[in-house]
Amino acid sequence: AALGNIGFKPPTADITINETIYIGTGKTVQIKPVILPENASNKKVKWEIKDSTVATVSANGTVKGVSSGSTFVYCKAADGSNVVAAKKVTVYVPVRRIAFSGKSMDLFVGQSVYPSFNLEPADATDKRIEWSSSNPSIAKVNATTGNVTGVSAGKAIVTATCLDGSGTKATHTVYVEPKTPVTIDYLWWETDRLNIMTERIKVDAVSNCLNKEVKTIKFVATAYANNNLKLSSTEHTQLIRLRPGKRATSSYDSITVPKLKSCRYVELEIVNVTFKDGTIYIYPDDIRKATKCKFEINSY
């Protein structure tokens, strides 16, 4: 009797599917079921899917995501043993692209901004993103919300990585501009000589910006008879068009400073600048005071 069992191969007793089937639409995963016992007489299996609108399964156990949702895949023994294994299939719509608005983002030291972007497609299942910065000493970013804060003037790269398993990521350049985007270097009398009878001047300014182009400067011009006696104070908005890191002199119109011909000093204090993109930067009070410049009439 014992000799009669030599070479006997038993039927399938168990089928196990170890893979976690979490796939994006259009993606596939190959299932390799574990069949016990190892010496089962027939290890062939048949595959079925419960809802083919969510996922499909091929004859060799390749599951393909069709649409967002969940269903079950079944692996059945083909030897007539009626052994079946079931596994949940979850299909998600992956993020295909992170599209940032514009080529880069500008902010000032101390300013916080949320990057403007869109996820494609709009119906992506999992829209969570992890954020990082190439240089947190220039621009730091909240890993969860993406809020970017300017720390010091310079350039950094912010990276957004999708957490849905798609591996989709994108980078965006961040320019952190200084708190003093523009400084006034010196004055020009309208005649370019010491004759100030016209009481008109032009300003010469320097851009401290890394990426933003300045369109106008708004400043207060104050005339002094001496260090303490104020003769006049007027506010001006001057068209100047300053490219990043460049110098320019106002030339489209001249600035009238009342009692200029009677004064000894002219003090200039920048209030704000308007950039080419239409945004306005208002100088903080401490920066306004620190960047005041006083020019002596007799030296020009």
Number of helical segments? 1
Report the major sheet. 5 strands, antiparallel
Q: Classify the helix fraction into a percent range.
A: under 10%
- Overall morphology: rod-shaped
Structural class: mainly beta
* Share of β-strand residues: over 45%
**SSE string, helices as H and strands as E:** EEEEEEEEEEEEEEEEEEEEEEEEEEHE
How far is the N terminus from the C terminus?
Answer: 122 Å
Uncertain segments are: none
Mean pLDDT over the residues: 91
Q: What is the number of E strands?
A: 27
Radius of gyration: 36 Å
Report what the structure shows.
By secondary structure, the chain is mainly beta. Helices cover 2% and strands 50% of the residues. The chain has one helix and 27 strands. Strands 21, 22, 25, 26 and 27 form a five-stranded antiparallel beta sheet that branches. Strands 2-9-8-5 form a four-stranded mixed beta sheet, with no helix packed on it. It has a four-stranded mixed beta sheet with strand order 11-18-17-14, with no helix packed on it. Strand 8 and strand 9 form a beta hairpin. The longest helix has 6 residues, at 285-290. The termini are far apart. The model has no long low-confidence stretch (mean pLDDT 91).
